[in-house]
Design brief:
7 helices, 8-stranded mixed β-sheet, 48 strands, about 800 residues, 4-stranded antiparallel β-sheet, disordered N terminus, about 10% helix, mainly beta
């Protein structure tokens, strides 16, 4: 089961799990010298793993940890180029922001024995278990190169396996193991030097076939950019033998992912097509597929090319022509399965079938066999080792998703509908299917001997409010909860499901509001065994929130969470309101915040840092904007936002703790736009902090957030929803913050620069802080510290705490 840390809070997708600590003794409410004394670096200390991986024999767990926020100066002299919203180094095959660490720990689950993986003068980019669980192959990161290292559990020190250049780009595994646990296949970088100088002139030509809904920067719309992209990502698959010999398996390609057939004979290669069209997002570029015979290096099969996606930008359940979701069947030695579109336009066009699923077995000389067709657009394919296929399809117009069950090779057993639910309603969410990433690069479902599958859900879901693991029987279709944790005092959540002799063992975490998570092994009814503890006396939990439940004037139910500073004084408190509006078709889709007690460290990127300056903090990040009377949500955005904030202020005032005359608006991205938008209509806020927002919708003419109409289709709407055009109505002081290298469509730094100039022209008190080298999500210690200092000074000034 893939390990994924969950977010602490829904703070505009900016929270990072297990991240930060807070010094209780140094922080006092309304402390006038806190700005000089508090060390913000303490909020950026990494105290937990960034990823964890269970060994195939389920005896060892490997965890990596490292700096949550690197130093800006460690990368200041390295050249980088941004293409397609991704930032690549020009001197080594790695992307900026890729996680690297010098700390990887191996822990034996039963005995607690641990081993450290460290390499002199190198960090670690990627690490993969061998199939026999006796070896680890990992990528070492030096100043200008990536190489591959080998560690045997029976030895004490890692050894350099090969100095061949390994690619760490594109977030795909760099290493896959052959079944013999002796040899690996690598993504070998063939990166070529690129010219970082901007040419004197560039020519762009409009693509009349392209359909866009965003203005994307750094697309491959010039020959110069296409040449750089190809030079940086040029790779080939190579076989690295136990003795260090290297043999090429493919030509040089824009290689994206590799996986090995279950019998170890063939390699499936997915690569980006050289025919790159301008103005297209990375995930919609054309893809090609090859099947390579590992023994000879010959190409055994070529699947239908997935063409450039020109339609889905406008129609979410449309599809590009060609093969999608290509993977190996785990129940066969070497058989592929994939989907192809039948009707490509999606549900905008009536059709009996949308997709067909095909299979093709080695030696790949026959024609592909069609297995079945789907009436909705195929979403995912999931397979088990026993030949069970679970697939999901969806209908974007109805906001519905279905899970189907099919036993491959059993014509007498028709497919069965497992689940059918509204995917915008968290109360109906069944969870995610539990799967595992194998050493050979394949992903397959976790099952027991009876071929039962498992769903894992956390938070609000159809099973309740909490963490759940649900078994779905293959024959009876009976759903049985095998793990549940809804205790509001202590949260328990499964991370890995271990199957041994058909017994279900769990690796899980435990945490409470006052104690950081710890890792445990659960034997079912037997006593649980502590594996690892991340708690430290230096860690201080933030206060548990008070859940606010209230209604706005039109009767829509609203929820928010109120956090109070630890040493709150008796008088009324100033409050920061953290905004991030959400669009819903109905108000019933709005999720209710979980009541579970979670350990919540202060995230420097979130609003809880305002607790340090004596502010209360209100998480209003689920404020709903609802489709009304057949209109689009944005048609009544301004009116609904006023209803939301009026109801929230009344709810805060009713607590008897909040001073409604000292309220501050704060938001990041769409939340920043929301905050400034409110200031164009009312002046009852003390000030605002707006980070990395979009304020001039004419700069996003092809759509924004959930809006699909263009500027030319709805010019009045774009003007109405642009705070920039209403800057003359703003009287509230505003602190604008923006990353100078913001890659997000629609939120270039120009947005904040123009808004600042507009406020300056209207003589509104405003400040603009531009963070050097920062993207849409800030990542460097030094720039984040400058942001925190500026925010603190601004808040203390707003609340008249100086």
């Amino acid at each position: 089961m893939s390990f994924r840390w969950r977010s602490w809070l829904c703070f505009a997708c900016l929270q990072t799990f297990f991240a930060f600590s807070l010094a209780r003794a140094e922080v006092a409410s309304y402390q006038t010298d806190s700005l000089a004394q508090f060390d913000y670096h303490r909020l950026m200390t990494d105290v937990g793993p960034s990823w964890m991986r269970l060994s195939p024999d389920q005896q060892w767990v490997m965890m990596a940890s490292g700096a949550a926020y690197p130093s800006i100066y460690s990368e200041s002299n390295e050249g980088r180029i941004e293409l397609l919203g991704r930032e690549f180094y020009v001197d080594r095959p790695l992307e900026s922001g890729s996680f690297v660490t010098d700390k990887v720990k191996l822990i034996h689950i039963s005995t607690g024995q641990s081993k450290e993986l460290r390499i002199p003068e190198r960090n670690i980019r990627d690490a993969r278990w061998s199939p026999d669980s006796k070896n680890v192959a990992f990528v070492g990161v030096a100043a200008n190169a990536l190489d591959i290292w080998h560690f045997q559990l029976s030895q004490q020190q890692p050894e350099l396996w090969s100095d061949i250049a390994v690619s760490g780009q594109l977030e795909a595994p760099s290493i896959v193991w052959l079944p013999d646990s002796q040899n690996v296949i690598l993504r070998h970088s063939r990166m070529q030097p690129v010219d970082t100088l901007t040419p004197a002139a560039t020519l762009q030509i409009a693509d009349t076939q392209s359909v866009q809904t965003r203005v994307y920067r750094n697309t491959l719309d010039t020959d110069f950019n296409r040449q750089k992209f190809s030079a940086l990502l040029r790779q080939q698959a190579v076989l690295l033998s136990k003795n260090g010999e290297v043999r090429s398996l493919t030509a040089e390609l824009l290689l994206e992912s590799i996986s090995i057939s279950p019998d170890g004979r063939y390699l499936l290669v997915q690569h980006i097509s050289d025919e790159v069209q301008p103005g297209i997002r990375f995930n919609r570029l054309a893809r090609e597929y090859q099947v390579v015979d590992i023994a000879t290096g010959n190409i055994s099969a070529v699947l239908p090319k997935l063409q450039t996606d020109l339609v889905r930008a406008r129609e979410p359940d449309a599809a590009a022509e060609g093969a999608r979701l290509v993977q190996w069947r785990p129940d066969q030695p070497a058989t592929l399965i994939w989907a192809e579109g039948i009707e490509l336009r999606g549900h905008a066009v009536d059709a009996s079938y949308r997709d067909a699923v095909f299979t093709l077995a080695a030696p790949f000389t026959a024609s592909p066999e069609e297995l079945f067709k789907t009436s909705w657009r195929l979403h995912q394919l999931h397979l088990t080792e026993g030949g069970r296929l679970l697939y999901s399809d969806f209908h974007s117009g109805l906001k519905q998703l279905r899970y189907w069950d099919l036993l491959l090779g059993a014509a007498d057993k028709p497919q069965r509908l497992l689940l059918h639910y509204d995917y915008t309603n968290s109360a109906e969410f069944p969870g995610e299917l539990v799967s595992q990433l194998l050493p050979d690069g394949r992903t397959q479902l976790v099952t027991n001997k009876a071929q039962a599958i498992y769903f894992q859900a956390d938070g609000q879901n159809r099973w309740g409010d909490g963490a759940y693991l649900v078994r779905l029987d293959a024959e009876s279709m009976e759903q049985q909860i095998v793990f549940a944790s809804s205790d509001q005092q202590q949260r328990r959540a499964p991370l890995y499901l271990r199957m041994q002799d058909d017994k279900e063992w769990l690796l899980l975490t435990k945490e409470s509001a006052q104690r950081a998570p710890s890792l445990w092994l659960s034997h079912g009814s037997a006593a649980e065994q502590l594996i690892y503890d991340w708690h430290s006396d230096a860690l201080i939990a933030t206060p548990e929130p008070l859940l606010l439940e209230f209604q706005r004037a039109d009767g829509v139910q609203l929820y928010s969470q109120l956090f109070l500073p630890e040493k709150a004084v008796d008088q009324l408190l100033p409050a920061v309101i953290w905004l991030y509006p959400r669009e819903y078709h109905t108000h019933q889709q709005q999720p209710k915040p979980s009541r579970q007690s979670l350990f919540q460290p202060v995230d420097p990127m979130g609003p809880l840092v305002a607790l340090l300056d004596g502010y209360a903090v209100v998480d209003a990040s689920q404020a709903p904007i609802i489709r009304q009377d057949g209109q689009e949500p944005n048609d009544t955005f301004r009116q609904q936002q006023q209803l939301n904030i009026d109801a929230l202020i009344a709810a805060l005032e009713s607590t008897g703790r909040i001073d409604r005359n000292r309220l501050v608006l704060m938001g990041h991205s769409y939340g920043a736009f929301s905050a400034v938008s409110l200031l164009t209509e009312r002046s009852d806020f003390r000030c605002a902090i707006a980070r990395s927002g979009a304020y001039n919708r004419s700069l996003t003419p092809l759509g924004f957030q959930g809006e699909k109409r263009t500027l030319w289709q709805a010019p009045d709407l774009y003007q109405q929803l642009s705070p920039f055009f209403h800057a003359d109505k703003v009287t509230t002081p505003v602190l604008l913050i923006h990353g100078s290298a913001d890659e997000n469509p629609g939120t270039a730094a120009l947005q904040s620069e123009m808004m600042f100039q507009a406020l300056q022209a209207q003589q509104v008190q405003a400040k603009l802080l531009l963070l050097n080298k920062e993207r849409h999500a800030y990542r460097y210690r030094e720039t984040i510290e400058q942001m925190l200092i500026a925010q603190s000074a601004w808040l203390r000034q707003c609340a008249q705490l100086d």
